Amino acid sequence: MVYRLHILFLLAALAWRADGQKRCYTCTTSNPPPGDPCVEDPANVENGINPCDKNYCTIFRQELTEKPGIIRSFSRGCVDRLDRPDGNSVNPHFIQYQRSCQTDLCNSGDGTDPVGGGGSGNEGKNAPDQLKKE
Predict the structure, then answer these.
(1) Residues in contact with 46: Cβ distance below 8 Å, sequence separation at least 6, in sequence order
(2) In a domain, 60, yes or no
(3) Count of domains for the chain
(4) Domain of 62?
(5) Cβ atoms 63, 77 nearer than 8 A
């Protein structure tokens, strides 16, 4: 009986994702306080998991150059094409992190580290003094 229940549960789980469509975490926040779920716990953002029929799940993180680690803007989403390859860049005002991936719920990190699942390359965490200048 228990064996049959396990098989039934497994089949139901497989059928639920049988459409092959990935899901992405989606949310946006500006000047988030410490503990903001969009940044730290996207699985607990209300309506924050959505089907994605596009190419990439993404994370974009922007920090103030003068205050590294202080987030100015942060977003997770689903896009057809990337504006820039994965990586980090810095200009006189902002440090920007772009991350992308192509598997189910792969955009779960904080944006400073590479994400799993087939990103666009050029991935890696760099200290602000090693970032590409724009």
Answers:
(1) none
(2) yes
(3) 1
(4) 22-133
(5) no
In the prediction, which pLDDT does 35 show?
A: 96
Considering the domain boundaries, does residue 106 fall inside one? yes
Q: What is the pLDDT of residues 98-119, one digit of tens each?
A: 999 999 999 999 999 998 766 5
Question: What are the residue ranges of helices labelled H in the chain?
Answer: 2-16, 37-40
Q: In the structure, what pLDDT confidence band is assigned to residue 19 with cuts at 50, 70 and 90? A: low
Torsions phi, psi for 68 (to 5 deg): -55, 140
The tokens 């003068």 sit on which residue?
A: 66
Short-list 1, 60, 2, CA closest to 26: 60
Domain annotation covers residue 52: yes
Contact 40, 53 (CB under 8 A): no
Closest CA to 22 of 118, 121, 102: 102
pTM: 0.75
1 part of a folded domain: no
What's the helix, strand, coil split of the chain in %, to 5?
20, 35, 45
User: CA–CA separation, 65 vs 58, rounded Å?
Assistant: 22
Strand partners, 60: 75, 98
Structure tokens at 47: 């309506």
